[in-house]
Fold these 2 entries.
Entry 1:
Amino acid sequence: MKEKDAITALAALAQPTRLSIFRLLVTAGPEGLTVGVIQEKLELAGATLSFHLKELTHAGLVTSRQEGRFVYYAPDIKHMNKLVGFLTENCCQGVDSAACAPQKKGKCKPVPA
């Protein structure tokens, strides 16, 4: 990941509503959630949600897909993992240390390229 892309992603997440949306979508996993479900769970106005989803999409953190009359938003797991990798690539400067290991393993598996 390039530094510019990391800054864009981090800037998008540096806002409480967007961070809440992203964390909700990560919890939902690759299938994502409909706009209506996101709106209901986070109690957001439609225009507010739309604005924040646009920002997260622009940052490459979420994707959308249309299924019938519903729009689903899902986390871009691959992009998220690249961001985490960028943030941790120099952790402990190559020294094998338990302090550098992830604290908690997730259930999501990377999506093949």
Note: Strands lie at 33-34, 62-67, 70-75.
Entry 2:
Amino acid sequence: MPYVDGFIVAVPKKNLEAYSRLSKKCGKIWREYGALDYREWVAEDVKVGKVTSFPRAVKLKPGETVVFAWITYKSRAQRDKINAKVMADPRLNEMMDPKSKPPFDGKRMIYGGFESLVRV
């Protein structure tokens, strides 16, 4: 059964190009290890809700936007194997090193794994 890792993150608008370059590199690594799909989307019609919303979830600051993304796998077992390889990959470690100043604040990233509920 398909399995998805989903995440949202706040990205400074001035860093969107750098973030996109980083994401393309990350996506290639995930796909190299077996992920079926890697997609990222930038907010276009995302409002701040009264109680909760994507902007509230990532504590969006002025000058930032929300990126919504997912990575698709064949199964949870495949996801666990792939993510173990990705997390051990020196290319990813180098890109995410705080000294290299990633173009987003990873502390405000929200992510998790999801199993399929409805497929139409």
Note: The beta strands are 3-12, 37-42, 64-73, 110-115.
